[in-house]
Amino acid sequence: xxxxxxxxxxxxxxxxxxxxxxxxxxxxxxxxxxxxxxxxxxxxxxxxxxxxxxxxxxxxxxxxxxxxxxxxxxxxxxxxxxxxxxxxxxxxxxxxxxxxxxxxxxxxxxxxxxxxxxxxxxxxxxxxxxxxxxxxxxxxxxxxxxxxxxxxxxxxxxxxxxxxxxxxxxxxxxxxxxxxxxxxxxxxxxxxxx
Length: 194
Description:
Mean pLDDT: 95
Oligomer: single chain
Strand order of the largest sheet: 1-8-2-3-7-4-6-5-9-10
Number of strands: 10
């Protein structure tokens, strides 16, 4: 049976230890409940894909604490830095060139005290997606997470209901011109001028 813990400081610290050991856990963010694994642990990320039943060709978002942490893994252009200053922490995911290889990486700093506390305790990014099976409705509280993913998770941090209830907007800045890949909580008009 999946453990369900209150999202208080002692349990957040223990959840970070579980992530270091390869766990897949669910936790609240400002947008929806997320499910995640330590982003730099390939085996844990592979298990995250299995839990989600998500095709491996669909990349996960890397949740980070702030721009400084994002810059360890992504190339942050002046345009990206400006958007981070305006919308981070918050519901904006940016697709940027990776510092690790020739691919891209999607990064976001969530505006939620539990998610940020978990990231700070882990001191690494969390590879994450909404805490539901691929194609199912995304959850806004811990009950919905457990109903949808059940015993496939190691742990659910219960931080109450999410505030926004819709996914982040995904903006791709890796090419010649910005492209919105998913319309979410931040409207296009705030991100791209005509």
